[in-house]
């Protein structure tokens, strides 16, 4: 039951399995399958049954906190794709185009939704999701059930993960940012030279066309950069191997 509690908390936040579009019953079913897989390996690492109800409650809260911490870290890094999509949408004047995002409970920009779905496809197509199971297993070596939670270390890792997430999002959207800067400066010069020229109506279609063209040309490189960085990030959790 303790194994199921930790893995269930992780499964509710894992990319793909923990998306808002996935029913909670399906998430808990995956957690039950993971538990059955890892029971033979983790049986010897589980503590004895606590003598009191308070000790049992404390152990349950301990496992829930560790599971939520691991799942939140794995989900936070994938937000780099959403941030990159929002930046591309701003640069191409497509922020008003909203699409329902299965990973969230609210719609987001269409480009951001597309990148989020692309990231999930790449994770599961490259078998990177196998590292999720390895991270769950190795979490018992880093965070044993009877060891206090390292709150300060977890907080530092979360801060670093958020910073790396924004940095990666800027790196993936750099070509479109550079294009938007140069294009808007050129459009500003045209507007100053010819004040009567309808710059907005002439520039908007070109901004969308050229911006999406640059985005499409660099889409393959964007996906590879994300997968490489995400694999390096997951190696933090399985470094004990």
TrEMBL record:
It is found in: Cell membrane; Bacterial flagellum basal body. It is a multi-pass membrane protein. The keyword Glycoprotein does not apply. The chain crosses the membrane at residues 53-71, 77-97, 109-137, 166-187, 199-227. It holds the Pfam family Bac_export_1. Keywords: Bacterial flagellum, Cell membrane, Cell projection, Cilium, Flagellum, Membrane, Transmembrane, Transmembrane helix. Belongs to the FliR/MopE/SpaR family. This is Flagellar biosynthetic protein FliR. It comes from Asticcacaulis aquaticus.
């Amino acid at each position: 039951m303790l194994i199921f509690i930790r893995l269930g908390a992780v499964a509710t936040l894992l990319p793909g399995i923990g998306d808002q579009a996935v029913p909670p019953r399906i998430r808990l079913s995956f957690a039950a399958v993971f538990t059955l897989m890892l029971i033979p390996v983790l049986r010897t690492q589980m503590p004895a049954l606590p003598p009191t109800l308070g000790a049992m409650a404390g152990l349950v809260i301990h496992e829930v906190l560790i599971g939520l911490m691991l799942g939140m870290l794995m989900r936070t890094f994938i937000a780099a794709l959403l941030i990159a999509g929002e930046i591309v949408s701003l640069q191409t004047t497509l922020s008003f185009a909203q699409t329902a995002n299965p990973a969230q409970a609210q719609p987001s920009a269409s480009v951001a939704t597309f990148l989020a779905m692309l990231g999930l496809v790449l994770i599961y197509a490259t078998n990177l999701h196998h590292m999720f199971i390895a991270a769950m297993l190795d979490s018992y070596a880093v965070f044993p059930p009877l060891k206090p939670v390292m709150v300060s270390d977890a907080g530092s890792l979360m801060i670093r993960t958020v910073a790396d997430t924004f940095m990666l999002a800027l790196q993936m959207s750099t070509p479109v940012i550079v294009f938007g800067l140069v294009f808007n400066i050129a459009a500003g010069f045209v507007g100053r030279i010819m004040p009567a020229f309808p710059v907005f109506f002439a520039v908007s279609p070109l901004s969308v066309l050229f911006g999406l063209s640059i985005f499409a040309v660099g889409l393959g490189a964007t996906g590879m950069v994300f997968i490489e960085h995400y694999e390096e990030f997951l190696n933090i959790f399985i470094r004990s191997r």
